[in-house]
Amino acid sequence: VQLVESGGGLVQPGGSLRLSCVASGFSLDYYAIGWFRQAPGKEREEVSCINKSGGSLYSPDSVKGRFTISRENAKNTVYLQMNSLKPEDTAVYYCAAKSGGSCQGGIKYWGKGTLVTVSS
Question: Which strands form 67-72's sheet, in the order they lie side by side?
Answer without folding.
Answer: 2-6, 17-24, 77-82, 67-72
